[in-house]
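User
Here is a favour to ask of a fellow structure person. I am asking you to supply a protein in sequence and C-alpha cell form. Please set it down just below, with no commentary around it:

Assistant
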Amino acid sequence: MNSKSMHIDNKSESNSIRFVLVALITFIIFYSISLFSVQSYQMYYESREYPMWLHVKSLINGKSDVKQKLVVIGDSRAKAGYEPVLSDDNTLNLAVGGSTPIEGYYILKTFLRNNPVPDNLVLSYSPLHLAHSMFFWERTVKYDFLPDNELDEIVGELKQHNDPGIGKENLIWKYAYLTSMYISSVVEGVKKKRWIINDKVKINLISSKGHAYFGTRHGVSSLNGEVKLAHDFNSSELINYYFIKLIELAKSKSMKVSWYTMPFNEASCKKVSPELVKNFNKYIQLISSKTEMNVIKNIHCMDNKYFGDGSHVYMGSELTTKDILLAIE
C-alpha cells in the first residue's frame, strides 16, 4: 500500500470518528434538552392530579407564621371530602390523591419544619391505600414530590418492611434519566390540552385551601375500588410502619390526632366484602389503641346522591366536613 492510499484511509477513519463523536454529542445535547423539558413542564401535560401534588408541595415547603387549627392529610377521598373554607378557623387540606401514610409522614414532617404546630391532625385514607402503595413510582417519584434523601430513606425501609405495590426494584433512576417514563403522559397531555385544565385546578386549589373535587355528577351508583379490587383487608408492612411514625410525630408535637374514614356510597356498601369492612375497622381500632388516635368514624355509608363518582363525595362534602369540624371542637 503506497503512502497516498494510507493517507486516504487515515483521513477516512478520522472522518468516521469525527462523525460518530459529533453524532454522539448531538444526541446527548438533544436528549438532555428533551429530558429537562419533560421534567420541568409537567403542568402542561400531566393529569389534574399533578397540580394537586404540586400545590401541597408548595404549602409544606413554604414558610408561614399562620397557625392552623387543623390540617387534614390523606388520599383523594380526603381531598374531596374536607373543605377548609367551611371552617371559621385556619385549616388546610394537605391530602393528595393516591397517597398513603408514607407520603403523609413526610408531608407533616416538612410542614412542621416551616410552620407553627397545628392544634389538630385528621388522617383519612381508604382501605386500598393502607393495603399497598399504588402510585409511589407514578406520582411520588415522577412528580418529584419528595427530595432525594427522603426517597432513599423510603427505599431503604423497604428492606425491612415490604409493600406489594412498590415492589423490590428501585425505579428512581428511570424517572431521573429516561424520557420514556414521560412520553405517554406527554402524548395524552397534548391530545387533551391538559394545560388548560391544570391551570384552572391550580387556581381553585389556592382559593379553596387545598380542597378539590373529583367526580362531579349529581348522584352515582357505580361501585368503588374496594368492591372491584379487594375481598379482604391486610395492611402493607411499610405503610403500617409509616402510619405509626406519622401519628407519633404529631403526638411528639402535642397535636391531637384523629381518624376519619370517608364514606362509601350506598351502592358500594351493599356489595363490599364484610371481611374487608370488619378487618379494616379492626385495624384502625388497633392503631388507635397503640397510639391513642381518636377515631371519629369507621367505614360508613352515605346515600348515592352525595357522590360525584363511585369513590368520592361531591354534594356530600359539606356533610363530611361538618363531621370532622364537630369532632375536633
Notes: The mean pLDDT is 95. The CA atoms of residues 69 and 243 lie 21 Å apart. The radius of gyration is 24 Å. The longest helix spans residues 3-40.
